[in-house]
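Why does this matter for the project? Reviewers at the last site visit asked to see concrete outputs rather than summary tables. In response, this paragraph embeds two records directly. Each consists of the residue sequence and, immediately after it, the corresponding structure tokens. Nothing has been edited or filtered.
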Amino acid sequence: MFKFLTFFKTLLLGAVLATTLQAQAQTAAAPAAPIKVVYHLSDGIPQATRAIQNIRNHLAADPTAKIAVVTHGAGIDFLLDGATNTAQQSFAGAIGDLASKGVDFFVCNNTLVSRNIDPAKVAMEAKVVPSGVAEVARLQAREGFVYLRP
């Protein structure tokens, strides 16, 4: 009986070890899902200038990150035709470069309406959404985006 119990313990220990090693191998082999981040901008050109640099740094550290920039209020200003940063450099090149790297830009339609801004003045890389704050909430709650406010 003692030999049977020893054999059974050895068999059980081997099964547990094999299962653990298999689970670790599957975890190591499975590629990690990209981190999804929403940058929330509502404070104007200085905030947008910081955000552009933060996003560049973010993508340099993690090129697989999925980044969305959601704007409302004064946060939309950098996405309007002719917008310049605090050094009077156009935002157009930076927006185009980031969009080519997969960054999505969203502009609040409520802001466009309340400020009487023609949607045609919004950068072509940006998509107009009904509400900026609702888009931030949707991305967080339904899409699993992490919230950042530069």
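We now turn to the second protein, recorded in exactly the same manner.
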Amino acid sequence: MSDMNQPQQKAKKMMLWVGMISMTMTFAGLTSAYVVSSARVDWLKDFQMPSIFGVSTIIILLSSLLYHLAQKAIQKDQISQAKGFILGTLVLAISFIFTQFQGFNQIIDSGYYFTGPQSSITTSYLYVLVLLHLFHLAAGIIVLGVSYFRVHTGRYGADRYLGMELSVLFWHFLDFLWVYLYAFVMLYG
């Protein structure tokens, strides 16, 4: 990784970690509020998480695998393979978003809305958790696009891949965050 000196590399990694820790704290606060709110009398005790969210979990885990393979390909200077893996990750990311909105449609079809007289505190929390994650995922998709562009233009290679390493770490974090949220709602809900 000779694209910059060691102190700069460490600083960039530290900035990413600080950002991911702050996002973790945001979601920890929201899931804590979810737990506290579950004691309310109007909390839905029999709410079933849409099954499509399980499918989206598998999709996002596969995307993490592909992006990891892209990073390994860059480290071996296998540029065309890396581009293919990044494009595959992008397709899976879009598929993840599609399944998330299908999940919202299933919730709406069950008669629960984000706000209004047909809303519930339970599903409102679910909407907030998922939409906030999707917001962060949108940032991840931008990062995917930047990574693809940099691979395509030769800015990443076996000796220059810090940006790729950081973007893969961020993507893995987003995946972990979704798995945490999904498992939390499935087990606690």
